[in-house]
Known about the structure:
Layout: H1 6-15, H2 26-30, E1 36-38, H3 45-56, E2 64-66, H4 73-83
Parallel strand pairs: 1-2
Helix pairs in contact: 1-3, 3-4
Amino acid sequence: MNNIPKEQMLTIIAMDKFDVLCAVPVKEMKANSITELDLSGKSLGTEGALVLASYMEDNGAMSVLDVSNNEIGAEGAKALGQAM
């Protein structure tokens, strides 16, 4: 985990210059080409959950997501829940 404050992480996400960010395959998610995503045990933390949530909102193709064993915390879980 990076322990990057939420505001700074949202700024990094908004830069939209990454193919992969916090283990999240951003490029594929933007292309809406992922139907199943296994990120179990990838040390996502809250930061990764925020990244994932921001790209899930526009991704209608994904039907299976595994984020187990990632210590995403309450804030990350809330973001993912809202994105679903």
